[in-house]
Amino acid sequence: CFLTGAAKLVVVIAIFLLTFYVISQVFEIKMDANLGHIFAYLWILSKILFYFLLKATKPPRYKCGISKACPEKHFAFKMSSGAANVVGPKICVEDNVLMSGVKNNVGRGINVALVNGKTGELLDTKFFDMWGGDVAPLIEFLKTIQDGTIVLMATYDDGATKLNEEARKLISELGSTSIANLGFRDNWVFCGGKGIKTKSPFEQHIKNNKDTNKYEGWPEVVEMEGCIPQKQD
Q1: So where are the chain's domains?
Q2: pLDDT tens by residue, 177-228
Q3: Is 218 helix (H, G, I), strand (E, B) or coil?
Q4: d(C-alpha 76, C-alpha 69), whole Å
Q5: Half-sphere exposure (CA, 13 Å, Cβ side) for 71?
Q6: Which run of H or of E encompasses 6?
Q7: CB–CB of 45/118 below 8 Å?
Q8: How far apart are CA 44 and CA 72, in angstroms?
Q9: CA distances in angstroms from 71 to 104, 119, 208, listed in the order given
Q10: Which residues make Cβ contacts (< 8 Å) with residue 134, sequence separation at least 6?
Q11: Is the pTM of this model over 0.70?
């Protein structure tokens, strides 16, 4: 990437110098051209040069806006929890926003996106109210997830009050370690999978603590990005 940017920079500088030379020759022939016009042309040329310099040095953008490209046979993902009870969570996989406030498919509690582990295709999205709702629909939903499915979860507002032992156990079987300690208004994001043999490395958890909370009554947003290995046959 660095060599490509440097090569572009050399080309841009060469074009600038060539253009300046041609214009200077024209002004030598047209003796009636005033100095103000010359500076005007130079100003325009400098703006054009600055634009191309920015393009030449601009860092590449990776899928979902993650910090580096994923290797082959991996799916890029980025996700964030909700911000207090104001801004909903966001889940992106392979440059496709699966859940967000803009898409109007997130809600209070635990937000879940299911993705095909082989193709990266979205299978389903759901949210379960863990404050005013019932944990039973979440349990039933977790039981229907098929082996090989990537499971992404993010909390919004409160994702723990209605959780019981059965629900926590089902989520831990997807690779979560923090679910056992998830408490009232904690912020939590997790990416695991059905049939996973080990604990997932993709998990972030911040406790609700009145002494450290960023927002009144809620901790700061947690964000996470990474590369999910594609399921192989």
Answers
A1: 1-58, 63-229
A2: 999 999 999 999 999 999 988 999 999 999 999 999 988 889 999 999 999 9
A3: strand
A4: 8
A5: 3
A6: helix 2-29
A7: no
A8: 43
A9: 32, 15, 35
A10: 162
A11: yes
